[in-house]
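WP5 quarterly update. Target: Zinc/manganese transport system permease protein. Source organism: Actinokineospora iranica. Length: 279 aa.
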Amino acid sequence: MDNLFDVELTMKLLSLDFVLGALLVAAILGLLAGVLGPLIVARNMAFSVHGTSELALTGGAAALLLGWEVGNGALAGAIVAALVLGLLSRRSSDYDSVIGVVLAFGLGMGVLMLWLYKGRASNKFGLLTGQIVGQDFASIALLTGCAVGVFVVLALLYRPLLFASVDADVARARGVPTTGLALVFAVLVGVATALGVRTVGSLLVLALMVTPAAAACRVTASPLRATLLAILFAEVSAVGGIVLSLAPGAPVSAFVTAISFLIYLVCWVISRVRRAAFA
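Structure tokens (predicted):
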């Protein structure tokens, strides 16, 4: 327990270049998760994020096996997952079952490829639970470029996307291309999910992509305030998780999930107290 909260050791580690790079990555991921999260919650896509992360794991595992850049493999796997989910689940009643099928297939193939990979075990473990030592210039450049692309597309489509997320039937009646928007948004979520796999890990990427937004939606119904709160909560979870993981050298995802869950509990209590006060 002495090393778990070793402030002096943490301060020394914070001066290292790879840690600063990891904090930059976490800040970008927090911004991505905070912007996309409320829309994910509004569209009931939390389960699809999990399914997409499994295909990102498969893509990353395939890249490891073939000696390619892991980030590129995870990104390709997540985009493929988003397209498959969008094309196979045209009806809302099919959505959960299609995600379950894709999730199981992705996880199975990912486990097989990790078993076939004979390299360092830390590379395998990092894909599952995240790591901060792999944030080199190439991965930061990839993350930054993808994040800018996501923000540009989201800025162009945000109003119709929000309309379709709040009430898809009315939006469709008004001529909004809800099917096309759903496919584009699935790809954006896939890209963001793949970027989170390297830091948070495929198993727990939900903690960053969904939990902060779910917490924000507990305390406000305003889309703008929910987005701002989700960004704040995601930044605290991502950056705080990395800082707390430094001294013990524990997986980042353990602390990211703990912080985001505590934030969610606080917001849940606030919402219950408000409801009781107005009952």
